[in-house]
Predict the structure.
Amino acid sequence: MVKWLTIVLLAVSSSSFATQVELTRGVEFSVLNQQDVEGKGSVSLVNGDNQLVIRLDRSFGDGDNRKEILTPPFLVTIPAQANTQLLEIGLVSTKERKLHKLIKANQSVFTISLDGQEIEHSLVELPGKNGFMPYGDLVGLTKKYNQENGLMYEAGTLRDLKQELKTVSEGSSDISTGNESEATLQLKIWFSRASEKEKKQHLEWVMSQLIN
């Protein structure tokens, strides 16, 4: 019974801890692990993978020479350890020309540090919605992106279920090999995409099957 329940119950059990946030001027940090953190001076990182949404909105120069850089929001995943005190998100340069060059080359303009140690990272542009204010709901867009791409949090790890399923499917025909079976991964992908009503109905069905 416990084994089957773990297939459908996807609650995150990782510990979290308060971390101070310092942002360079123009850097926006809006979402952490699918939660709104815009404007907060401290956040709760989990011990493991942390998914951030960041962007740059900054003006350079004065008067007629004034130029602005406004990037789309980006997703970035960083690892954190217990008792991290400080999260710093800065820029690789304060020169507008250099930042534009990096953006054109699809390279990150950000620096991300935990307790003074810079973290290597890669960015994924967060798709916006069509029409007015395409990035008006960054939390909703993040959840949608994760659901559509088979990403989910489990025990402090951001798992790519689609990639795991592909690996299992291309491997041995024995679906019990690896960390999880193909059937288990399919169930998790479905469950992560289901509505709250659908999840409740499915759990009720699972319980009825276990009782019978």
Residues 16-125 form one domain. Residues 1-13, 172-178 have pLDDT under 50 and may be disordered. The helical segments are 2-8, 96-104, 138-148, 161-170, 182-193, 196-211.
